[in-house]
Amino acid sequence: MKRLWLAAYRLRIVFRGIFLLLAIATVALALSLLQQEKQLALDAYQTHFDKTQQQLSALLRHPSGQLALLNPGMLNEASTGLHPVILPFAALDFDDQSKVQQAIAMSGCLQQYGENGDLCAGIGNSPWGGAFLYLAGHFNAPALTEHERGERDLSKADRLELTLNVDDQDFHWIAPFEADASKNNAAPVLRGRFTGFLVSDLEAGKSKPYKDFRALVWQQGRCNQPPANGDESQCQRTAFFSVRIAIPQWQAAIYTNRNPAWPPTDLNRLRIHAQIKAANSEQVLLDSDHENRSGIFSLRDLQQHLLAGEKIEIRRLDQQKSYLQLQGDSAQALDQKALLIRLINWLPVEKRIWRLERKEVLNTAAFPVEFSLTGDQRSALQNLTIVAARISWYVAAMLLALLLAWGLLEVNIMRRITLLSKRAKALSSHVKASQGIDQFNLNDLRSADELGVLASCLQDLLRRVREDLEREQIRAAQEKDMWHAVGHEIMSPLQSLLALHQREDDPSLRYLQRMQQALTILYGNASPSEAFQASVLDIAPLVLQQFVSTLIEYAPDAGIADLIWTEPRPAAEQNIWIKADAHSLEDVFSHILNNALRYRLPDTAIEIGLQADERYAVIRIQNRGPRIPEEMIDKIFEYGVSDQAEAGAMGQRGQGLFVAKTYMAKMGGTISVSNLDDGVCFVLTLPRAAAPL
Question: Which residue stretches, if any, does this entry annotate as coiled coil (predicted)?
Answer without folding.
Answer: 455-482
